[in-house]
Amino acid sequence: MWSLMMRKNNIFAGNKFFAFNVWDIKSAVAVIDTSLEMNIPIFLQVSASVYSQIDVKGFIDFTKEYIARKNAKVILHLDHSKNVEQIFEAIDLGWDSVMFDGSTFSLEENIIRTNQVSNYVKNKNVLVEAELGIIGNVRDHLGERDKTEIPITMIEEFINKTNIDMLALPIGTAHGQYIDEIPVINHAFIKEIDMTFDIPLVVHGGSELPLTELEKLIQHKNVKKINISTDIKQAYRKGILGSEKNDLLIEEGFNALLVEREIYKSIKNVVKEKLTVLEMKDG
């Protein structure tokens, strides 16, 4: 498959990605179809919390078959798992990429558990993402920029003692819905990391950022992956509201397929908007 071949040849060489969180087959299809139409590779993500609630075997069997049949350039990623055994299971089932989130552990424990994952994927062509420093939720002190800078010495120790493919660091963004409070992103810190380390960075909390901010982020040489979750969930909601506005939810003659179509189109519109940023990047 494309993702496995790319892994062997350094998937981040010349490539940048948006990563979209989904929760079922239908949301996955909407994201994959948009990627195909625009011919832009993506990460398709399932969070650890979603993973624990779905029919995992059924999801990956369908998704992998759909990706292969459509010849889509998609990397299936397990996002924010703190459970090493869950990660091992996902790898065995065929996930292309996994994230061990050891951000709430001590540095030493984070290194130990991250290496458990890295060692498990040896010769398996699976990407490993790690997190150092806590990337909180929107409600957790959004905008306190001084708290986003992890000491360079700590980052150096973590990178030197782990064998990871990408790293998530707090840069001012947060998980969840920003509403009216747009985060202040620490671009100077991103540049410092780029000048000091050769490690692909992952931006968490990319939803609801203005397109101009996404464009600025993607221009950083070391920013290789930007995660979008909340915007996909809101697209689902907007699809339902659009169905109501268009009288598709009335009882008489109700057609579930028409509602599903509205949701599908709403998710596609969000994915297309984000991927357009990659079309505009300078390279």
Instruction: Report helical residue fraction.
Output: 40-55%
Q: Structural class per helix/strand content?
A: alpha/beta
Largest sheet geometry:
8 strands, parallel, barrel
The rough form would be described as globular
Task: Describe the secondary structure blueprint for this structure.
Layout: H1 2-8, E1 17-21, H2 25-38, E2 42-47, H3 48-51, H4 56-70, E3 74-81, H5 84-93, E4 97-100, H6 107-120, E5 127-131, H7 152-161, E6 166-168, H8 187-196, E7 201-203, H9 211-218, E8 223-228, H10 230-245, H11 256-280
Parallel strand pairs: 1-2, 1-8, 2-3, 3-4, 4-5, 5-6, 6-7, 7-8
Helix pairs in contact: 2-4, 2-11, 9-11, 10-11
